[in-house]
Amino acid sequence: MRLSKIFKNTLLVLTACLVLSACATKKEVATDIKGQIQGDVYTGTDTVKYLADGVPDRVFFATNESILTTASRETLRAQAAWLRKNPGINVVLEGHADERGTREYNLALGERRANAAKDYLMTYGISSDRITVLSYGKERPVDSGSNPLAWSKNRRSVTVKAN
Amino acid sequence: MTKKILIFLFILIPINVNALIEVDITRGNLNPLPLAVSPLSIDEESRKSFEKILKKENIGTEISNIVENNLRTSGLFNPLDKKAFLQAPDIANLKPRFEDWNLIKAQALITGKVNFVDEKLRVEFRLWDVLAAKEMMALAFTTVPNNWRRVGHIISDKVYERLTGEKGYFDTRIIYVSEEGPKTQRIKKLAIMDQDGANNKFLTLGNELVLTPRFNPASQMVTYLSYFKNMPRVYLLDIETGTQEVVGDFPGMTFAPRFSPDGKKIIMSFAKDGKSDIYTMDLENRIVEKITNHPSIDTSPSYSPDGKFITFNSDRSGYQQIYVMKNDGSDVKRISFGNGLYGTPVWSPRGDLIAFTKLHKGKFYIGVMRTDGSGERLLTENYYQEAPSWSPNGRVLIFYRETKTNAKGEGFSAKLWSIDLTGYNERQINTPTDASDPSWSSLLSN
Question: ipTM more than 0.90?
Answer without folding.
Answer: yes
